[in-house]
Amino acid sequence: MKQKNDVCHPTRGERYLIGIVPSYELLADKYRTELKYGILEALSKSLEKVYSLSKTICGFIGNLITGDISVKIWAANFHC
To answer: Which residue of 16, 24, 40, 42 is most buried, as measured by CB atoms within 10 A?
Structure first.
């Protein structure tokens, strides 16, 4: 049985911890959604996605060329 003085002075190998211990949970696994497609449907979805991204990028570059979007304003908004 420990005596009153042992509370302030742990024995060799023991350690008292006081405070808050952080805990965390990986959010990537919690909010991940997995979709499975057949080969033809996967190919179709991938081509749709590539087309959509290409259209967005080309539109953005076109707006930069025509002056509808300023590089300075874009860089300030996206902290580049």
So the answer is: 42
Contacts of 63 (CB under 8 A, 6+ apart): 69
pLDDT > 90: what percent of the chain? 30
Asked if 77 contacts 69 with a C-beta cutoff of 8 angstroms, the reply is no
Residue type, 37: Y
Cβ atoms 34, 40 nearer than 8 A = no
Q: Name the token pair of 28.
A: 């990537």
27 class by beta-carbon count within 10 Å (0-12 exposed, 13-18 middle, 19+ buried): exposed
For residue 47, give Cα distances in angstroms to 18, 41, 52, 74, 75. Answer: 56, 10, 9, 28, 30
